Amino acid sequence: MRKAIFAGSFDPITNGHLDIIFRAAKLFDELQIGVLINPNKKGLFTLEERVELIEVCTKELNNIKVIEFQGLLVNYCKEHGIDTLVRGVRSEADVNYELQMAHMNKELNSDIETIFLPTNKQYSFVSSSLIKEVLNFGADVKNLVPEEVIWAIEKKTK
């Protein structure tokens, strides 16, 4: 059984993330979505809320498992028999950063492979950080995030 993980903070999950998830799900028997807290980013949703949003947005995929984790991703992979990391890339800057991470992960666990999926060009500028930034100014992001995220944002701001 081929197992992979796509990890990130997903705060909030965007249509770009979902594009990568749906495409990666076709490549593996099981795709885990690893949700983590990034201490360098200000959170919009709790960890539990993010897990729930991802589960709702991916409910039609029967080979998805949404998990939360802490610590080194390569350690989690080793403990759970995962040998492939899925990473989405939007730009040259993403490729450079992700390539460094892939080399470090390979150094830490030689059994780990990383595959890069280029984002759909319509989402090439979308990031969770940018979504949060424009939301602070009341921007309409309904074309950039799933409907469930819009509902969750509206619920939080009422």
UniProtKB/TrEMBL annotation:
Keyword Transferase: yes
Keywords assigned: ATP-binding, Coenzyme A biosynthesis, Cytoplasm, Magnesium, Nucleotide-binding, Nucleotidyltransferase, Transferase
UniProt pathway: Cofactor biosynthesis; coenzyme A biosynthesis; CoA from (R)-pantothenate: step 4/5
Occurrences of domain Cytidyltransferase-like (ranges): 5-133
Catalyzed reactions per annotation: (R)-4'-phosphopantetheine + ATP + H(+) = 3'-dephospho-CoA + diphosphate
Subcellular location: Cytoplasm
Site (Transition state stabilizer): residue numbering on this chain: 17
GO cellular component terms listed in the entry, alphabetical order: cytoplasm
Function, in words: Reversibly transfers an adenylyl group from ATP to 4'-phosphopantetheine, yielding dephospho-CoA (dPCoA) and pyrophosphate.
The protein's name in its UniProt record: Phosphopantetheine adenylyltransferase
Source organism: Terrisporobacter othiniensis
